[in-house]
């Protein structure tokens, strides 16, 4: 990254961690196909299995429950393929979940959220009464950072004989959890949100999910559930990052303090902070000023050297209205102004101070030293 720029878009892609960069050196001379039985193949197989162990350990499950995929999107697609003919999908899910559900021959019910972005438990219960379903509820939202009570949800889902898929792409590395205790049946993870390389992720599968239906059978890799020669670089970087995530809770506290100081100043300038009354990721803030639109603000921020986003990263690069804020019943004017700041391992207080200075300039207030 150019030193003149300040990166505030970790929820889209984290800055690559030095540990991931070091992993490139580790495999530069490793060319064996991990499915080959010769020495070179056995070596790359060992590297992959070591990564699988590290990821499994970081989320409290066994290594045979980790299936490597090309990222969060593919893990979601594979998870939704396990539906029993009915899907209940939370209205604030990532667009990848909605797109996957559309391609399936399943009855789909949309689960509404309240004004804070939390799913309506009573509505979930009434939908569950309709019959066995695959319930799709993310752990933490990529735009607002709002955290769903996944353990409570999994208990309710199982009470009605349904299965729960949890997209933990944003939660992984930001919330400490134990997969085996959560009661989740299927979970999606992604490497590039935690400092690894793009193009690698995993579907985590509980011991109870014994028969999975693959989408790519190929050469039978990944326990026959996801065929294709493994993405060695992506997987190794993923494992390296997983093994250093949340060695202590200090990082979470640090990021929460940075977000709190940003939100205090933004609120005093009139910003509305979305999801501020509920449990949110420590690194995320989504806010809006009623008199500023996100598209013009994003350009100004970019020219001033700040990399931020208006919510989720969209492949077209255009600013589109957020389905998440719409689901939260946010006023249309406020939806148009939403800006997301997401911090990570290289974020510092001085970066926040620069951003506050930028907004003070916009509102023609003197910049404090
Ligand atoms: N789910 C959530 C909540 C995300 O934020 C993202 C990425 O933006 C994805 C899924 C997709 O993950 P990937 O980019 O690894 O395909």
Written account of the structure:
The protein has a seven-stranded mixed β-sheet, with helices on both faces. It has a three-stranded antiparallel β-sheet with strand order 9-10-12. The chain has two domains: 6-15 and 249-363, Aspartate Aminotransferase, domain 1, CATH 3.90.1150; 18-244, Type I PLP-dependent aspartate aminotransferase-like (Major domain) (Aspartate Aminotransferase, domain 2, 3-Layer(aba) Sandwich), CATH 3.40.640.10. It is of the alpha/beta class. The chain contains 13 helices and twelve strands. The protein binds pyridoxal-5'-phosphate (PLP). Pyridoxal-5'-phosphate binds next to helix 3.
Short description:
The chain is of the alpha/beta class and 369 residues long. It has 13 helices and 12 strands.
Instruction: Indicate the CATH topology of the largest domain.
Output: Aspartate Aminotransferase, domain 2
Strand content: 5-15%
Helix vs. strand class: alpha/beta
Biggest sheet descriptor: 7 strands, mixed
**CATH architecture assignment name of the largest domain:** 3-Layer(aba) Sandwich
Molecular shape:
globular
Rounded to an integer in angstroms, the radius of gyration calculated over CA atoms is 21 Å
Tally of discrete structural domains: 2
Give the CATH superfamily of the largest domain: Type I PLP-dependent aspartate aminotransferase-like (Major domain)
Uncertain stretches of 5 or more adjacent residues = none
- What oligomeric state best describes the polypeptide chains here? single chain
What topology, given as strand order, has the largest sheet? 2-8-7-6-5-3-4
Please provide the count of β strands.
Answer: 12
Mean pLDDT metric:
93
Helix count, DSSP H or I runs of 4 or more residues: 13
Question: Secondary-structure element order, as H and E?
Answer: EHHEHEHEHEHEHEEHHEEHEHHEH
As a percent range, the share of helical residues equals 25-40%
CATH C-level class of the largest domain is: Alpha Beta
| Distance N to C terminus | 26 Å
Q: Could you say which small molecules are bound to this protein?
A: pyridoxal-5'-phosphate
């Amino acid at each position: 990254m150019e030193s003149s720029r300040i990166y505030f878009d970790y929820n889209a892609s984290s800055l690559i961690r030095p540990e991931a960069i070091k992993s490139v050196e580790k495999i530069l001379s490793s060319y064996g196909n991990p499915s080959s039985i010769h020495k070179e193949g056995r070596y790359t197989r060992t590297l992959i299995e070591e990564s699988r162990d590290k990821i499994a350990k970081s989320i409290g499950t066994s290594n045979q429950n980790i299936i490597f995929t090309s990222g969060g999107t593919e893990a979601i697609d594979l998870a939704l393929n396990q539906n029993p003919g009915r899907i209940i999908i939370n209205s604030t899910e990532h667009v990848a979940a909605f797109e996957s559900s559309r391609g399936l021959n399943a009855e789909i019910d949309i689960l509404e959220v309240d004004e804070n972005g939390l799913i309506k438990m009573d509505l979930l219960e009434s939908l569950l009464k309709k019959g066995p379903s695959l319930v799709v509820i993310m752990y933490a939202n990529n735009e607002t950072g709002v955290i769903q009570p996944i353990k409570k949800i999994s208990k309710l889902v199982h009470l009605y004989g349904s299965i729960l898929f949890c997209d933990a792409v944003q939660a992984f590395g930001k919330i400490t959890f134990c997969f085996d205790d959560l009661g989740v049946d299927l979970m999606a993870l992604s490497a590039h949100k935690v400092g690894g390389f793009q193009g690698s992720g995993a579907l985590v599968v509980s011991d109870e999910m014994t028969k999975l239906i693959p989408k790519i059978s190929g050469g039978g890799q990944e326990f026959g559930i996801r065929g294709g020669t493994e993405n060695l670089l992506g997987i190794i970087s993923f494992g390296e990052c997983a093994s250093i995530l949340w060695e202590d809770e200090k990082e979470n506290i640090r990021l929460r303090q940075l977000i709190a100081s940003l939100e205090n100043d933004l609120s005093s300038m009139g910003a509305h902070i979305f999801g501020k009354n509920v449990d949110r990721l420590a690194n995320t803030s989504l806010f809006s000023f009623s008199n500023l639109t996100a598209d013009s603000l994003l350009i100004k921020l970019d020219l001033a050297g700040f990399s931020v986003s208006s919510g989720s990263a969209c492949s077209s690069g255009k600013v589109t209205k957020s389905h998440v804020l719409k689901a939260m019943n946010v006023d249309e004017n406020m939806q148009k102004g939403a800006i997301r700041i997401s911090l990570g391992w290289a974020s510092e207080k001085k970066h926040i101070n620069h951003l506050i200075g930028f907004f003070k300039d916009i509102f023609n207030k003197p910049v404090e030293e």
